[in-house]
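Hey team,

Filing this mostly as a record. A colleague (T.K.) asked me to run one chain through the structure pipeline before their review meeting, and I want the input and output archived in the tracker in case anyone asks later how it was produced. No errors, nothing strange. Just documentation.

Input sequence:
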Amino acid sequence: MSEITPDLVRHLGVLARIQLSDEEVPRLAGQLGAIVDNIAKVSEVATPDVPATSHPIPMENVFRADVPGDMLTTEQVLQNAPDAADNRFRVTAILGEEQ
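Output structure:
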């Protein structure tokens, strides 16, 4: 069992600048105690013999062959364009005259 006391919860509340009511203190003491107990359980399991991992199974990159597929026609590409001219997308200029 953890050593989270109501006095410690009140002290933590002062440090965090959180005003705690008398009803909240015992509830938070129990919740913080459960958190500390669970962290202690995890610390017991983690030993130097167990390597740290980010995933439970080994991961590797899988690449597919780079094979060209079906191509869209110019008409298909431009059919939903807001504006097009000379078989190209037409957009507003973003560069000033100095370019």
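Quick notes for T.K.: The chain has a mean pLDDT of 87. The chain has three helices and two strands.
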